[in-house]
């Protein structure tokens, strides 16, 4: 089974705008996959549908063989999402943000605390655990979103433009972190509009433009064309 399988996905927003015009895509287990495309292409909409934040108009999405329409709560256990915008409670403390997320996934309190410690340490945020999230720098907030997305140890991690607005030093350390997570078996999909980011990290790539997939190939083959 594919980690993610999308078939003929359409999204028409309430204002009549057709953001996705029949997207089909398979991402194999263990892959590091890039969804590349300009602003407005439909990348965030696609991610929104996968994690059920955006209601699709038609089409099928399954995650490790589970159709999200049949059993979203099962599919959700396998997905961790790092959205583009910071969306945590600004007054909640770093430790609590991650632990609360673990609770949403049904982890018992002790395990939730162990996992919170593990991921805050891995992302270099353990010293900040007592701080309120609004006190963190932009780069720290982004790493906090990654820790929160990993705390239930999903098999598929999806990141929406993870390094947009991130300085070069942090970008490199985030890249290395993601490579390590992938090497340990987590399938990763990221959206980006930087070819360089896709080139540095990913094996396979889909290029999306105006709601359609215009190429689905390996990074190597894509680079040869340029
Ligand atoms: P990307 O992530 O590739 O930048 P998006 O998926 O965010 O693209 O957006 C795709 C298109 O859908 C854009 O033209 C955007 O303006 C439009 N769009 C996004 N959200 C809405 C919405 N809620 N209502 C209407 N149009 C939207
Ligand atoms: P700013 O947003 O002010 O640039 P950051 O939060 O981005 O600050 O980064 C602070 C420091 O933490 C940087 O020097 C960065 O290299 C380092 N850093 C980034 N990611 C990690 C990580 N995974 N583990 C440990 N340190 C990290």
UniProtKB/TrEMBL annotation:
Residues 4-226 form the ABC transporter domain. The keyword Chaperone does not apply. The keyword ATP-binding applies. GO terms for molecular function: ATP binding; ATP hydrolysis activity. Keywords: ATP-binding, Nucleotide-binding, Transport. This is ABC transporter ATP-binding protein. It comes from Porticoccus litoralis. The chain holds residues 2 to 227 of 313 of the full protein.
């Amino acid at each position: 089974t594919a980690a993610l399988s999308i078939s003929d996905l359409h999204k028409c927003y309430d204002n009549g705008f057709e953001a996705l015009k029949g997207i089909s895509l398979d991402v194999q287990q263990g892959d590091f996959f890039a969804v590349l495309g300009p602003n407005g292409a439909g990348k965030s909409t696609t991610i929104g549908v996968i994690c059920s934040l955006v209601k699709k108009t038609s089409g099928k999405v399954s995650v490790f063989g589970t159709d999200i329409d049949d059993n979203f709560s099962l599919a959700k256990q396998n997905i961790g999402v790092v959205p583009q915008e910071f969306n945590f409670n600004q007054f909640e403390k770093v430790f609590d943000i991650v632990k609360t997320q673990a609770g949403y996934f049904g982890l018992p309190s002790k395990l939730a605390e162990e996992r919170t410690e593990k991921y805050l340490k891995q992302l270099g945020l353990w010293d900040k655990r007592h701080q309120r999230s609004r006190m963190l720098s932009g780069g720290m907030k982004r790493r906090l979103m990654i820790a929160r997305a990993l705390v239930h140890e999903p098999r598929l991690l999806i990141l929406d433009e993870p390094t947009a607005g991130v300085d070069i030093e942090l970008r490199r350390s985030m890249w290395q972190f993601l490579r390590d997570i992938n090497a340990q078996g987590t399938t990763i999909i990221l959206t980006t509009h930087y070819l360089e980011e896709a080139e540095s990290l990913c094996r396979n790539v889909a290029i999306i433009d105006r709601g359609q997939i215009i190429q689905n190939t390996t990074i190597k083959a894509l680079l040869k064309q340029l």
